[in-house]
User: Fold these one by one.
Assistant:
Number 1:
Amino acid sequence: MGFVLLCFTAVWATTLHVVTSPPPGTKPVYRYWNNRLGTHFYTLDEAERAKLDSQYSHVFIYEGVAFYAWPDPNSLSLVSTGGTEGTP
């Protein structure tokens, strides 16, 4: 089953078509909670995830795979500023 996630920041907005189980060609989108800002951070990037886990675990709390999505070749990072998250 799929759903649409709307992501907004001060700079950009985008609509993503996402799914909750991994069909071919999708990547996991990892979800983190930022205690300092009270917002969620999402990333598809494995290197970014490793850096958050190793260097910023005091700020970003890993919450697991949020969903699966087809990666955008222009950007592998997604940011949500709270209150704009879709739910399946």
Number 2:
Amino acid sequence: MACDHLLKKRLSEVNTSANTPSEIWCILNTILQEAITNFIPHKLVSGQRIKPLLMNNKVLKSVKKKHKLWNKWKQNNDDSIEIQYKRQVNKASKAVKTAKIILNVN
């Protein structure tokens, strides 16, 4: 409620008879922008999700391909896609394990 009082006070200080409409608009716009910056809370949003260090491009690509094959298999219920999915599961698991080993060595 303090912002209402401050806004009314600032708006009452504006001399509308001495200024042109464009000047009044600039003053009003300035007052509103100040009120927005002072009284509206800001939420900080981080840019990107932080992925684990072992998730390099090769591992990430392999896991994404596994997820795509899973969705494709569940939609079609095809045996050939199931075989592709199971092979990709093994490839993705192997890629994650090798990335963990490389990360621990370095």
